[in-house]
Design goal:
Length: about 250
Amino acid sequence: MNQAHSVPLLEGHALVRRFPGGAGVNGIDLAIAPGEVHAIVGLNGAGKTTLMRLLLGMLGPQSGSVLLDGVDIADAPPQVWAGAGHLVEHPLAYPELDVRANLQVAARLHGLRRAAAADVAERAIAEFDLARYAGVRASRLSLGNRQRVGLAGALQHGPRLIVLDEPTNALDPAGVILLREALIRRVGAGAGVLVSSHHLDEVARIADRVTVVNAGRVIGMLDPGGIDLERAFFSLVHADDVERSAA
């Protein structure tokens, strides 16, 4: 990837959202620039999904702000949101509709007219190798193929901003490669990608920046080109856990 130097597509400033028991996000700053993949890594419960939901306006912060294309997300017009694509937690798929219809609906929800939605859906079916399932209802798909449909729906309309939470969940190796190549193409065309993952080796293949989150806070960065990324990750997390225990 080429490291971008321009106005961020998405920015979170001092974001805080706490839940009973202490989980949540505690003062995170984050930015995604055009032409880069920014990866977030952390153990389960570190706050990755909560952070993504805050950045996309699915949750409201207790304090802090989020800017989408330089505009507060509360004020961002539909045409700005139309330039975003995301998959957070569960892929969008209406169980009673087949794959083709699901993709067309997803495209329409992003503002495409009927004919254009049909065209992009066919291209997405080809890109994510879904032709054999195009007429199959989503309820009959395996988890991996449902994930492919969700990813295709998030990417098919050519978003400038892509936010994906654990996108390789349930994917077979072929699906992982298809996703990797799809993201590389879009980043090469100037899109910005924010992706969370616990697959550090896969992250290292595509990321320009890797941010480590623990207990709802940013605790450091990893070099995606470094040696033994997993060891470096666990060292950061362990040191932070020790420091918080001592405090």
